[in-house]
Amino acid sequence: MEFFIISMLNGISYGLLLFMLSSGLTLIFSMMGVLNFAHASFYMLGAYVGYTISKITGFWPALVVAPFVVGLMGAFFEKYFLRKVHKYGHVAELMITFGLSYVILELVQLVWGRIALEFKPPEILQGPAFTLINHSVNGLQFLWGAAPGEMCQAADAAIRVVCSPFPATRAFMMVIALLMLVSVWLLLTRTRIGLVIQAALTHPEAVESLGHNVPAVFMLVFGAGAGLAGLAGVIGGSTFLTEPSMAATVGSVIFVVVVVGGMGSLSGAFLASLIIGLIETFAIAFNYSLGTLAAQLGLNLSAAVQQSSVVKLTLSQVAPILPYLLLVLMLIFRPKGLLGNRDA
Amino acid sequence: MHPLARTRDFAPYIAKIKAAGADAVITGNWGSDLSLLIKAANEGGYTGKFFTYYAGVTGTPTALGTNGAGRVYQIAYNHYNMGGQMDKWMKEFNEKYKDDFYTGSTIRIYQMLGAAMAKAKSTNPVKVAAALEGLEVKTFNGDVQMRKTDHQLQQPLYMTVWDKASAKYPYSPEKTGMTLVPLKEYPNYVSSTPTSCQMTRPTK
Question: Up-side HSE of residue A131: CA atoms within 13 Å toward CB?
Fold first, then answer.
């Protein structure tokens, strides 16, 4: 039971991290039609800039300042590079962000080096947020913070006690992601600037003739998207690892999230992030393979087939590629994604 | 088992390891995969031991930090505190490249290649390859022999554990204040494993 709860929480928190990353990507895509290949690079920049700032001021100011710095970098890139190639169409835009991702990777390695940095979360986030104690006699208990050592040890050998702490960094990650979802949604639907942004997307000429500065709106959106990735970077970098390959590890899966959720749909990205987080987490728990499936269905496989490596592959072994399988299936059966309103 | 350097989240693996009630984990993970695994283990309350092959690879010491103290073991043909010529090489390497020298095998590659060429009195690849079979060289971890049947090196191995650096074992990789403390040396006759290899060789 505690395994199920912890796995559920692991899946949700991982899904929410994916959402933090993909919200900026989907925002930029829905507003500007630009598929930003460098998005994960802004995530990495967020972690590194956050690391440097936290060395000077501590973690909390870094959490606020680093996303702004990354956002400014994003806005600068939009204004002086992306805008220049805009007239050559989407392929040119795609290529320039693709190139940017390599430039950022090399710059990061030049400035901060190739090895991992020790980016520690603040003291308050280092321990567990709460602990689940599964006692074979007393049942399941819930305890805020860390459980004292004696509670996790059974005095009697016949009693099995398992303590499952849930890290505070992950709980924090979940809270920030939810705050981000709510504030972005409110900003887009309930404020004047949100209305201008939405209008600039579909009718740029009309908005421009009403006296709004559409290029500035685009710059703002790109900067904000990059800033959101930067925020995710500060949190992801301190929760996991700050190192040059961190962009590559998330780069591909956030595209899956955006496509599965529906290109440009914020709520779709949210739903898809959670689904992918949970699928990946729970798939790891199962040792089922095609072979065991066939056995349960009563199929008799020849010895040769039973020994083939494909049939013996378990669900837990293929867990990390399941999102990509989902991507392929989604593109075939529902190209516009779960909640999307246009074709990918 | 998982794709290399692609996994971002090891918490589900730790949850599974815990649920299975494992006392120890043997892993070939290295770099970010290894450090994320240890990190997730610490956060997930898993208290078992980790037996690794690559705890010394660049980046891993920093990522391990003080996290894996006393719980992360490495089995390898070298370690940080071997003394002798290895200490000198590590010092020189560190001065020149500001990095830790952990790929000791490069030294033996050239030692063995040189010895094989001398033995074959030729640089012809087929002749040198034949000379490598059964060749024995003396190197930083003692006598190393390439077994004739399967071309695997027969050599002493060292079990070390990740722990605080001390006056006795001072070498600390990446300024972590930690080191790999030697626990046990396995001489050739212990570290050797049986083989049933039957490879076909080129005609001379």
Answer: 22
